[in-house]
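Structure in, sequence out. Go:
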């Protein structure tokens, strides 16, 4: 299925000049779904030329014309939402309703930024000279290279492409190799929405080859990564050579703080519904549970009881709550983390092994621990899997210190009925996003992103377009 698409530049699907192929493995059957032709250095140079040729083609359109094209993308995607969702579930194993949710969120990005394209407002500043005008205007940064993780291949790409296009920038999308079909079918929607030649480009390949060429190329002015903190550091370091503008959406390890003035069972129920979405492979997944000591047992029991009823299986089938982990590597990392958590002295309350009924696939049972010590690796490193570590706390200062004690600062969740405590906690937490009395955060109209080693830059909201704009200051003295 992959060879019918391939790579995309100059407005057409291309075959690569390299013979190297990358196998795509089904996480459900462990069999090869197909092979992706891997791009060579020469292909990457062709993609760069294509994107450079797209600069004027895209910039010469008015913001209204660009806005209309972005809206067309949303319409094409919406018509094909079921097909795109099937690709996502096939390649990643996640339940179809979750895949459909991802596509709808991506559509909303294009709807939102089709409007924002019309709202890039400059400024006129009162000059200190009578015969002068001071103007601030915004201009597109230029060619953007966008690298995305495999966990949400469509929405993560949409969060970069929609604001970049709205700002007037051509994009080279380098999606993860685990789910290339989802990215290809998405790129076909962009093509069918009549995005001009060179403005959208797609290339797959060994990231060390492709990204090396892109990072060394001065005409690629910006990079935007959604991925791990480890790769974020590699790309930021590499960007120094040509001083590229960078945006980094990196890993997280979200604390969940449940204060004593709450209903712990209701929160546990909500947490269980959210935690195992995409088998816990979500950057914003609630992943460290700090429950007030008076509530810990009630919370844990309810979490376990709700989770016990979840059905594991192939996300393409109906009635499935939890799919497999996406790759063999993820499965091995989850198994290692579970054994480390046990060795650290935590108590296993549910799961802790691969499911007996499923012979093939990278499945792992949803796993819940309580009494987890802070030094346990699961409290320090992003679990990115179906693992729930629960610990207790006694007071505000103590829990804030422990929640802030990591280098991650992406999301955080707070539960309290006290407005005063909600504000105090939201102010004290070191994170780019705080959800109070809810697990809902991501939307097209709000700025998504982290602080500390979870990255910088924002995606979504009126802020998101700024990552793709340069500020130009003009001090204009008017001659007689
Ligand atoms: P990853 O960092 O391994 O890979 C991310 C992307 O970078 C992929 O496209 C990959 O091909 C590319 N890449 C990998 N090595 C590279 C290299 N040496 N040079 C250039 N590019 C390279 O991450 P992953 O395993 O795909 O995704 C999981 C991580 O992504 C987790 O840490 C998760 O928290 C994070 N994530 C963050 C967000 C967010 O919005 N903050 C969203 C989703 C995922």
């Amino acid at each position: 299925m992959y060879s019918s698409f391939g790579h995309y530049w100059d407005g057409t699907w291309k075959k690569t000049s390299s013979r190297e192929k990358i196998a795509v493995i089904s996480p459900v059957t462990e069999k090869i779904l197909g092979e992706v032709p891997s791009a060579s250095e020469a292909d990457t140079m062709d993609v760069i030329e294509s994107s450079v040729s797209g600069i004027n083609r895209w910039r010469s359109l008015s913001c209204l014309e660009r806005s209309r094209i972005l809206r067309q993308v949303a319409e094409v995607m919406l018509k094909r939402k079921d097909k795109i969702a099937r690709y996502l579930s096939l390649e990643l194993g996640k339940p179809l309703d979750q895949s459909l949710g991802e596509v709808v969120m991506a559509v909303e990005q294009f709807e939102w930024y089709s409007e924002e394209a019309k709202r890039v407002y400059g400024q006129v500043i009162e000059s200190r000279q009578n015969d002068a005008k001071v103007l601030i205007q915004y201009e597109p940064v230029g060619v953007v290279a966008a690298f995305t993780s495999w966990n949400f291949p469509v929405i993560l790409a949409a969060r970069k492409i929609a604001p970049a296009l709205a700002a007037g920038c051509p994009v080279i999308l380098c999606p993860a190799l685990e789910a290339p079909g989802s990215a290809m079918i998405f790129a076909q929607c962009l093509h069918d929405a009549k995005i001009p030649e060179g403005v959208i480009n797609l290339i797959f390949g060994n990231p060390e080859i492709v990204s090396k060429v892109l990072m060394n190329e001065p005409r690629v002015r910006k990079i935007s990564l959604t991925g791990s903190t480890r790769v974020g550091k590699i790309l930021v370091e590499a960007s120094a050579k040509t001083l590229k503008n960078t945006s980094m959406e990196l890993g997280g390890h979200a604390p969940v703080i449940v204060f004593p003035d709450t209903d712990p069972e209701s929160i546990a129920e909500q947490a269980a519904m959210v935690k195992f979405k995409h088998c816990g492979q979500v950057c914003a997944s609630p992943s460290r549970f700090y429950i007030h000591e008076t509530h810990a047992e009630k919370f844990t029991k309810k979490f376990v009881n709700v989770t016990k009823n979840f059905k594991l299986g192939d996300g393409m089938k109906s009635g499935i709550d939890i799919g497999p982990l996406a790759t063999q590597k993820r499965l091995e990392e989850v198994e290692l983390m579970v054994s480390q958590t046990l060795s650290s002295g935590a108590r296993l309350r549910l799961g802790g092994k691969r499911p007996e009924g499923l012979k093939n696939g990278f499945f792992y049972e949803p796993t819940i621990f309580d009494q987890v010590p802070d030094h346990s690796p699961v409290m320090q490193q992003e679990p990115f899997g179906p693992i729930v570590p629960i610990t207790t706390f006694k007071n505000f200062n103590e829990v804030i210190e422990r929640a802030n004690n990591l280098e991650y600062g992406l999301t955080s969740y707070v539960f309290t009925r006290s407005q005063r405590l909600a504000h105090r906690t939201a102010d004290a937490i070191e994170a780019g996003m705080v959800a109070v009395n809810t697990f809902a955060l991501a939307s097209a109209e709000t700025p998504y992103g982290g602080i500390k080693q979870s990255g910088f830059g924002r995606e979504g909201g009126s802020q998101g377009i700024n990552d793709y704009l340069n500020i130009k200051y003009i001090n204009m003295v008017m001659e007689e």
